[in-house]
Amino acid sequence: QYAPGMHITRAGTLADLEQAGHLVEQRVRPDGTFDGWDGRDVLCHLAVYARLVGAVMRSTAEKRLPTSTELYGRELTEEEQALTDLDAINEALRSAYSALSYDEGLAFWRAMHAEAVAQVARLSDAQLEAPGPAAPPNWSRPHLADVVSALTQHYEGHMATEHRT
Q1: What is the 3-state secondary structure (H, E, C) of 37-87?
Q2: Which among 47, 92, 115, 151 could disulfide-bond with 54, CB atoms 3.0 to 4.6 Å apart, if both were Cys?
Q3: 39-61 vs 102-121: helix axis angle to the nearest 10?
């Protein structure tokens, strides 16, 4: 979150996102546990979050609403759309990516993180400082850059819980 009167910049937002990405690269490992998740699970979890942020940034740059496929990688079923419990959502996502190996999970996260970085780079300071986003509705924030801040804080939060097995 940004303090009142603080000017939001693309350069600062990108720097924060890139720094958080470096933290993930440095800390995540196959033999680590992250608040009960293994390295692959946490990478896939963070990749899904990064994909959503990248889609929000892309749609803002293109002055349109994001599609479900952009946000979630595919159209959601009615049951998935009805999920509201965060633990149930996280378990559904963990299950959806359980067949990926650690290396595939790492590649997935790297691709989604790179996409989020690329889409933030397309935006102006004014776009990042404006309220946003309009969709998905539960992602509304005082500033569009706050969506990126939520992602970086999520990266940092999961990396802070790492324990070696």
Answers
A1: EEHHHHHHHHHHHHHHHHHHHHHHHCCCCCCHHHHHCCCCCHHHHHCCCHH
A2: 115
A3: 20
Please, which pLDDT band fits residue 63 given cuts at 50, 70 and 90?
very high
- Give the alpha-carbon dihedral of 80, 86, 90, 96, to 10 degrees: 0
Predicted pLDDT at 13: 97
57 in Cβ contact with 120 (< 8 Å): yes
Backbone angles phi, psi at 143, to 5 degrees: -135, 145
Angstrom distance (rounded) from CA 18 to CA 23: 9
Q: What tokens were used for 5? A: 């009167």
The predicted pLDDT at position 164 comes to 62
- Phi-psi region for residue 73, left (φ > 0), alpha (ψ -120 to 50) or beta? left
Name the nearest CA neighbour of 17 among 85, 102, 119, 165.
119
Confidence category of residue 108, pLDDT binned at 50, 70, 90: very high
Tokens 């196959």 belong to 30
For 73-79, what is the mean pLDDT? 79
